[in-house]
Amino acid sequence: MKISAKIFPWDNSRIFDSGDLDLKIGDIIIVNFDSGIESAVVDKINIKTDDSACDIIRKATSIDTETVERNLAKCKDAIKLCRDLASEKELSMKIVDAQFSFDGGKVIFSFIAEKRVDFRDLVRGLSKKFQRSIRLQQIGSRDEARGKNGYGVCGRELCCVKFSGSLKSVTTEDARVQQMGQRGSDRLSGLCGRLKCCLGFEAEQYRKNLDTMPLIGEEFSINGRKGKVVERNVLSNEVVIEFQDKNKETIAVDKLK
Prior knowledge:
This protein is an alpha+beta fold. It has four domains: 59 residues, no CATH class; 75 residues, GMP Synthetase, Chain A, domain 3 (2-Layer Sandwich), CATH 3.30.300; 63 residues, no CATH class; 37 residues, no CATH class. It is built from seven helices and twelve strands. The strands form three sheets. The protein has a five-stranded antiparallel beta sheet with strand order 2-1-4-3-5. Strands 9-10-11-12 form a four-stranded antiparallel beta sheet, with no helix packed on it. Strands 6-7-8 form a three-stranded mixed beta sheet. Helix 2 links the parallel strand 7 and strand 8. The longest helix has 27 residues. The radius of gyration is 26 Å and the shape is elongated. The N and C termini lie far apart (57 Å). The mean pLDDT is 88.
């Protein structure tokens, strides 16, 4: 049976083969990953996928769980130290999170930066402080939101959490085609500050519907009255026609001639 589990809070879940292990959502497993040993939390079970699966070493024992908890307890101080060093070196980067590898060999810091950052001095400083291998992982705003979890204004779990790994990029064109471009960036942006992932769910269907609808300004004759299209309602497949006498009427697209 294939399952998925999250190793890093900011990253997509990974696929694993559970073999004979009896696993449930929330269980901690010990896995081989990137030439090291990591812990991961199971978030989905019995997945139907053809994707290749990584190896599970074992289901976490009580001793393994204690190790994971000790590592988590060290993250807050590690983040503060990394932020202080980055500020001291005047690096334009936001340190988001930290994670100690299960095997104790390295510390991974995730960060956000608008431009390319030379963090070699920072890595050297961190290596000296922690006496272990240091890795800095650049992530995006959506990855940060994924790591924090939470709920959107819709009241549901964030899309980047619920559908991690399966979301495409969202553009302003996706908002425009759904007639939402005029709502303003504050209403179209998610917790990450970027366009809401949900804008990408129906955009393609809107585009298909628009292909069958007349353009704004296109003229028609309805029962001997001439008018032009001034509005389009994609969901209801209707348009608003403004006639020469300035009266308006909502008409289904299939009624136009």
